Amino acid sequence: MTRPRPRAVLWDVGNVIVRWDPRALYAKIFREPAELDRFLSHVCTLDWHVEHDRGVSFADNAAPLIDRFPEHAEHIRAWDERFAEMLSGPIPETAAVIEALAGRDVPQFALTNMPQSKWPIVQAISPAHFGYFRDAVVSGDEGVIKPAARIYEIVLERTGLSAHDLLFVDDSAANIAAARDMGFHTHHFTEPGALRNAVAGHGLL
Predict the structure, then answer these.
(1) C-alpha–C-alpha distance, residues 17 and 95, integer Å
(2) With bands split at pLDDT 50, 70 and 90, how would you rate the model's confidence at 3?
(3) Residues with Cβ < 8 Å from 172, sequence gap 6 or more?
(4) Fewer CB atoms < 10 Å away: N or C end of the chain?
(5) Which residues contact 177 (CB under 8 A, 6 or more apart)?
(6) Average pLDDT of every residue of the chain
(7) At a CB cut-off of 8 Å and minimum separation 6, what does 98 contact?
(8) Whole-angstrom distance, CA of residue 67 vs CA of residue 65
(9) DSSP state of 171
(10) For residues 145 and 53, is the Cβ–Cβ distance under 8 A?
């Protein structure tokens, strides 16, 4: 039996639509590369940050870390206070595909692991493109993150679509695998220049 083609696109956000990298901020704070690497691998790690994506507040998540590393209190708080400096603009190839899909009236949605309080900041990076989305599921609002099955279920509930109706684009192999297991069409975003052909290959452009 032939699998139905997707009729809508579900976008990840960070490093698919908008570039996000803590180094963009902390390279301004730590001039020595070794010091920068040490801070991001031992203090403000991505494992620590993922709790923000689950909905834990920055204040609550920072407090025990500051207790452990009081000498870095200001740097730890900068993750929250200077979050916008981790963002370095939209990815042009993705922006062009979003516009092309909008021109064909293809429904578009977002699914992002992100602190709820930072979602408006991210949207402000590219308001025209985010304006094409009919809905966005933000992990910080839901208390669950990709690749947990529950967050994909929330997408289906919110959109009213089936998994096979959606092409999911994400830069994480784990997130892509979880979505594929649930029946989504998927594209693992690793090379921006390959995106348009991948979307077109699903009959959406």
Answers:
(1) 7
(2) confident
(3) 12, 146, 147
(4) N
(5) 147
(6) 97
(7) 11, 17, 108, 129, 132
(8) 5
(9) S
(10) yes
**Residue 7 corresponds to which tokens in the numbers above?**
């009729």
User: Which of 14, 58, 9 lies closest to 166, judged by CA?
Assistant: 9
Over residues 126-147, the mean pLDDT reads 96
Within 8 A by CB and 6+ apart from 129, the residues are: 17, 90, 95, 98, 99
Cα–Cα distance between 184 and 116 in angstroms, integer?
25
1 has a pLDDT exceeding 70: no
Quickly count: other Cβ atoms within 10 Å of residue 141's Cβ. 14
pLDDT digits (tens, 9 = 90+) for 75-111: 999 999 999 999 999 999 999 999 999 999 999 999 9
End-to-end CA distance of the chain: 24
Structure tokens at 60: 């609550």
Q: Please tell me the pTM assigned to this model.
A: 0.95
Amino acid (1-letter code) at residue 90: P
Paired tokens of 119: 């979602």
